[in-house]
Amino acid sequence: MTTGRDDDALTWDGDDDPTLDHGASGEPDDGSETVAEAASTPVELPEGFTAVGKGSETLGAAGSAGAPPAAASDATTAAESATDEHRPMGNGALIAFGVLGGVYALYAIGWLIGGLRLQGKSQYLVLDVMYQGSLWLAVLAPLLWFATTLLLTRASRAWVRFAWLGAGVVLLLPWPFVMIGAIGQ
Prior knowledge:
Blueprint: H1 32-40, E1 44-45, E2 60-61, H2 69-85, H3 91-119, H4 128-152, H5 158-171, H6 175-179
Helix pairs in contact: 3-4, 3-5, 4-5
């Protein structure tokens, strides 16, 4: 039985390259001392860069070569808290936002249908121009509430967003559709 490279399952062109030979023990023959020395010397980052991740406490900035290790750990915890703040939304939150967006779109349609059906019955109360303006504001109100809530609460926690969106679902119920529309007749 022969032992060697011919017994390998796959051989590739260039396998006979002498730089790939690691000897019988499987470790490199030469140059291992330089790799170990390079790994033990501290690496300095350029000014303005912050190291994050595993082993980042051993790295230092160019201007803070003599900085104590506590400063490096403070920078690491600050970087970790910044990444915790801006975590992406989960699948459940995205689905809930989609469902609530659909509810708000249906509310806008409900305001439009209810307002158009109410238009003939309430012409004696307000001028036609005033009624048209208020009708389109009512139609746009659910869409504006949804967009404004998402815009103004993007730095807040998820429960704050859902609380404001839930308040809008209750407050913006299309009453003309409920009272005069298909349900009220």
